[in-house]
């Protein structure tokens, strides 16, 4: 039964929970972390760790996408970002770094990003970026917005994209645009021969609607990063991640029954900043996590220690700051797999996931989704 709270006369709200509100319960069984598998597979593509990168230029360049892929995850390029608009991205990023250093006004860096994203999209540039990833032999994934998905996808497919991510702050099964044809995801996906991951969503009903479009994966959340994203302040919209993941997992279960066996992956995107958050996301029902800010600390991240989301560059309603992350001291391999001397859970992210699974006696990700949970008092 849903936990409804009266917030005023005739008005109720549902009580929901963040990842920080829950804890994983150890079971009667433990095992060695060497006997634990973190592999997962979406469509025909298999990955060693349940990691998808948040598609922001702050952490994903063509080179970073290759590095993530070689380490067992999935790097996602932004087909509407800097690598699709500027031939010299290093110069564009230098302008951004200078703006953060020369001004204490947080709007200064956002203004630079808006100016950089005002440059026209060039398919030759994004095709070259895709080629670099494809030639490395790793899986090629690219993100488009719902508004431009129909326009850009044919050229992206021709360039060699293998997984398409249709992502906005909030997405629905049908994106309505005045003065143009709406994007109907069901017909859009049906015409494609590659898997589509779509999101973000924050509730059972929308997750179910997206699953019924034929999406191979549904993104839960909008990439919330503390001190970076401002969607709650700007739009008043928030997604308590523990509840949202559990709701989407319930939709996945019901859709599995409805279709007689079609499994749709749930991807948690938001509020995941530590290895404990990764473990709790899987425990709530996610198949993988979409990491952003934690990867900004990697020496390979192109943002040079800065982090922002694509929503920062919106021309009229930006919903992300350009924030200083941490010093770039670790390469991706150490950030993901250790070894680590940091006890805060910000490094060895997936080595810690293995340890959490081993400590609770589970051998793979799908089993770990059944682990017991408690709510903090």
Question: What's this, in brief?
Answer:
By secondary structure, the chain is an alpha/beta fold.
The number of E-state strands comes to: 18
- Overall mean pLDDT stands at 92
Give the radius of gyration.
Answer: 20 Å
- Proportion of β residues? 15-25%
Structural class: alpha/beta
Task: Give the strand order, joined by hyphens, for the main sheet.
Answer: 6-15-14-13-12-9-8-7
Q: Report the oligomer.
A: single chain
Protein name: IMP dehydrogenase
InterPro entries: Aldolase_TIM, Dihydroorotate_DH_CS, IMP_DH, IMP_DH-rel2, IMP_DH_GMPRt
Family: Belongs to the IMPDH/GMPR family.
GO molecular function, one term: oxidoreductase activity, acting on the CH-CH group of donors
Describe this structure in words.
The chain is α/β, with parallel strands linked by helices and 377 residues long. It has one domain: Aldolase class I (TIM Barrel). The protein is built from 13 helices and 18 strands. The chain has helices spanning 62-70, 89-102, 106-117, 123-136, 149-159, 185-190, 204-212, 231-235, 241-259, 275-284, 332-337, 349-359, 365-368; strands at 4-8, 11-14, 22-24, 40-42, 45-47, 51-53, 76-78, 141-144, 163-167, 174-175, 183-184, 196-201, 217-224, 265-270, 288-291, 306-307, 323-324, 373-375. It has an eight-stranded parallel sheet. It has a two-stranded antiparallel ribbon with strand order 1-2. Strand 10 (174-175) and strand 11 form a beta hairpin. Helix 1 (62-70) packs parallel to helix 4 and helix 4 crosses helix 5. The radius of gyration is 20 Å and the shape is globular.
